[in-house]
């Protein structure tokens, strides 16, 4: 099932459980605005290259729209739409005052030089600057982008609108970024996992963990989980997969991946087939790369007891059903990975206040938001007798529906 069909399906199931009016349901589903822009840049060799960029602004009932910008060859309109919608429900689950948006450019950042990436980012910003802003739509990093990308967007946007640090989050610290944002999604994954395990009388210590994706989210999640005594036995990224039954030395692997652009060639474990990573023996599986990777073809072979969705939309609805029958507990993306957007919110607040928080405050506030989010999701599960994904969707959709009705947009 494609990402948009899957996301719409989950939304509609939640809308029915909540008993939403059909007109309201329809209006919540349709994106506020979809933007498609052509971005042509001169390459370093003087030739021209054209790329297509997207920004989908899904909903702003609860506040400015918020969500990352992805640079990846598979960026396409339906997926960006789905990811924008997921951001709306995610911000509401986290209970931060934002709506949802997502953007991306269909490109392979690994094949572009730094100066080509800068030109591409600046051209994309020129095309969307009039529809983003600190109180309208606030981009952030996602796959293939990072603090440097945000710095270029900030600089290009500021040429049109004056210096505006709150127009993007996930910035470098020297440009108004927040301490703790780099690790925030991974740290949120740690807090979410701890909250879930507590329900089963367990802690992270001694759990065997497998992680797919070793970029910002996957590497921080692996590092923080291993610091709590979790045994990370296998990880993969686009370059390969590494396994060590006794536990990988994560700080060493992070250093290797940084120096070699990936985990391939790491000497502290055995190289395994990356396509087997999701079905490796473990207690906890953390998909932290692409969407749709857990589907009807592999769900029945998954051995983990818990799946923590650090990636967006890693699990197809058909797989959800198979996993539920097998008794595998899935902690859904719109709660499990909301630590990133939560600390983005803290960054935006600091930019607007003109005051910088220390890292302990950021991490302490994040922990409180993550624990409250888990409690709220569980309450919805109890009210509607549903599993965690539906509980999270009901929580998010209900909060957005209430804000929409209060603003009088239902007609
Ligand atoms: N960066 C953030 O704050 C947030 C990111 N996410 C989601 O987390 C996921 C990862 O994002 P980031 O870590 O930021 O991206 P990133 O670009 O830093 O890292 C992506 C990782 O996935 C790996 N990868 C790509 N294709 C793969 C494949 N076919 N098999 C295995 N690994 C593959 C890459 O090699 C890299 O290690 C995405 O789904 C993103 O939407 C969710 C919430 C916030
Ligand atoms: O930090 C943000 O604003 C959004 C991060 C994001 O794109 C996501 O949570 O999927």
UniProtKB/TrEMBL annotation:
Residues 178-408 form the Glutamate/phenylalanine/leucine/valine/L-tryptophan dehydrogenase C-terminal domain. Coiled coil: none annotated. The record marks 142 as: Important for catalysis. Substrate binds at residues 66, 90, 344. The active site is at residue 102. This is Glutamate dehydrogenase. One of its GO terms (biological process) is L-glutamate catabolic process. Belongs to the Glu/Leu/Phe/Val dehydrogenases family. NAD(+) binds at residues 185, 216. Pfam families: ELFV_dehydrog, ELFV_dehydrog_N. It catalyses: L-glutamate + NAD(+) + H2O = 2-oxoglutarate + NH4(+) + NADH + H(+); L-glutamate + NADP(+) + H2O = 2-oxoglutarate + NH4(+) + NADPH + H(+). PANTHER family: GLUTAMATE DEHYDROGENASE, GLUTAMATE DEHYDROGENASE 3-RELATED. It comes from the Eukaryota. Keywords: NAD, Nucleotide-binding, Oxidoreductase. The keyword ATP-binding does not apply. InterPro entries: Aminoacid_DH-like_N_sf, Glu/Leu/Phe/Val/Trp_DH, Glu/Leu/Phe/Val/Trp_DH_C, Glu/Leu/Phe/Val/Trp_DH_dimer, Glu/Leu/Phe/Val_DH_AS, Glu_DH, NAD(P)-bd_dom_sf, NAD_bind_Glu_DH. Gene3D superfamilies: Leucine Dehydrogenase, chain A, domain 1, NAD(P)-binding Rossmann-like Domain. GO terms for cellular component: mitochondrion. GO terms for molecular function: glutamate dehydrogenase (NAD+) activity; nucleotide binding.
